[in-house]
Specification:
This protein has 206 residues and is of the alpha+beta class. The protein has five helices and five strands; from the N terminus they run αααβββββαα. Strand 4 and strand 5 form a beta hairpin.
Length: 206
């Protein structure tokens, strides 16, 4: 699995120069997989669940997942000359097909002091307040944001980077960012949601 993930990441980097950009970008292309590239298949398929039993019992597997988490948090803090700061990122964005996302959090957030949160196997378990939000994506680089259906409030069940299960509620732009990244783990892009003009429910526990 580790060798496969590394090889896929190399393919992403090797093909970066061949991409046809919708916006002229230069500094983000080595880190974020682009749609319509030679390696965008990871963006259109459901990612693998992290095996939490292995996470807790197999040091090599845990080291692999830890390295993915560290890489995603690195991307959150990366500075790109020609792209806005990344607010959220998924394994799929990085060419690593695990259900892991990292979200930048306001440092004033009372329960998340580090300024970011990592979610392993995130699942939206409740939602309310259907609305729409203008959205763009580092893997699409649309010239203009598009309107995407989102819920104003969501509750998410996930495992943190230590492997402990947590349940937290989020609202507003933060909730929208989390929905965006959870969609990525299920192979859904904002253009899919906008085209169907609906919210995808398959990741919600009934």
């Amino acid at each position: 699995m580790l060798k496969k993930a590394i090889n896929e990441k190399k393919k992403c980097r090797n093909n970066a120069k061949k991409f046809n950009w919708r916006q002229k970008m230069s500094s983000i292309k080595d880190d974020i997989v682009q749609n319509e590239s030679a390696f965008d298949g990871v963006l259109h398929r459901e990612n693998f669940h992290v095996n939490m039993d292995l996470f807790h019992t197999c040091p090599r597997y845990r080291n692999l997942i830890d390295s993915v988490c560290r890489h995603l948090t690195y991307l959150l803090h990366a500075k790109y000359e020609d792209y806005q700061t990344i607010k959220g990122v998924s394994g799929a964005n990085a060419g690593i097909p695990f259900k892991i996302i990292a979200i930048k959090i306001d440092t004033n957030h009372s329960t998340i002091p580090d300024g970011f949160i990592v979610m392993i196997n995130p699942t939206i378990i409740s939602r309310s307040g259907l609305t729409s939000r203008a959205s763009n994506c580092g893997s699409l680089l649309l010239k203009k944001p598009i309107s995407v259906p989102r819920f104003e409030n969501v509750t998410v069940a996930y495992f943190n980077s230590r492997g402990t299960r947590e349940i937290q509620s989020f609202s507003g732009k933060l909730a929208s960012t989390i929905q965006h990244e959870v969609d990525h783990t299920n192979g859904i892009l904002i253009t899919d949601a906008a085209k169907r003009n609906t919210v995808f429910y398959h990741d919600i526990i009934r």
